[in-house]
Amino acid sequence: MKAENDKILSIKNLTMNYGSKNILNGINLEVTKGQIIGYIGPNGAGKSTTVKIMLGLIDDYQGEVVIFGQDISSGDPFYKRRIGYVPENAEAYDNLTAMEYLVFTGELYGMDRDATQAKAERLMQQFDLRDVGHSRLSSFSKGMKQKVLIIASLLHDPDLLFWDEPLSGLDANSMMVIQEILAQLAAQGKTIFYSSHIMDLVEKISNRIVLLVKGEVVADGTFEELQEMSQEGSLSGIFNQLTGFTEHRSKAQDFVSIVQGDKEYA
Ligand SMILES: Nc1ncnc2c1ncn2[C@@H]1O[C@H](COP(=O)(O)OP(=O)(O)OP(=O)(O)O)[C@@H](O)[C@H]1O
User: Fold this and answer.
1) 46 lines ligand 1 (CB under 6 A)
2) Which residue range is the domain that position 154 belongs to?
3) Is 1 a member of any domain?
4) Short-list 43, 61, 32, CA closest to 190
5) How far is the CA of 50 from the centre of ligand 1 (A)?
6) Whose CA is closest to atom 27 on ligand 1?
7) pTM higher than the cut 0.90
8) What is the layout of strands, in order, in the sheet containing 70-71?
9) How many domains is the chain built from?
10) Could you give phi then psi for residue 218, rounded to 5 degrees?
11) Ligand 1 within 6 A of CB of 18
12) pLDDT tens-digit series, residues 46-83
């Protein structure tokens, strides 16, 4: 059993509604240091909503969320300084240069301006972005922007990371570097929530997989445990089975026949 001080996050009976719509239905999760959690589920399952609650962006939930031993409903935002976040997109910052965005982010986390700038420069160099540090993000390719978001999430050396589709747009070489960075961070005791729809990657990267369906955790374990439970070989197969999706072929057939103008729609 893990020591109590290895516990990073504890969610008890988390429930959330948007109006009359039930989004989260009693989520329970205990997360310890060094875990890389593949947080997966169909579109609309409630993954981003859970993450937004943990980031303190949504507060009208029921249940208990404790991060670094602090109940986040206490209103003390200090726990956020130990969190890093890669959002699915950050277009709002397109008018800033990469360096402006990174300095702004570092300062939000309470870092010294010069120290942030120096660290950002070194990190950008690692990702071959040094020469474009003073160009606006709007001129960056998708993968370049993604690298800046990843740097921003790590500048302050956080203990808990929430990464939402972090590798989207990255080339194969950059993906390998990021996967290795994740593994090394986890080995040093950092905890990572990794949301993605790319099952092969989640399977490779995570040492624990949590599958959310309609606001409920329907599977939680290592990839091997999930394989045993479902008798499926791949995470895509497990996902299809546990989300009850067996219609991909007939859906595709219907779609293609509409595209080709079948008689019913002609
Ligand atoms: N601001 C909002 N107002 C009303 N409903 C919302 C709001 N944000 C999300 N929802 C609804 O909550 C549900 C869960 O959304 P959420 O974004 O958490 O899903 P997700 O699992 O992250 O999906 P995806 O994989 O598509 O990113 C969806 O039905 C969505 O329509």
Assistant:
1) yes
2) 7-258
3) no
4) 32
5) 10
6) 43
7) no
8) 21-32, 7-18, 62-67, 70-71
9) 1
10) -105, -10
11) yes
12) 999 999 999 999 999 999 999 999 999 998 888 899 99
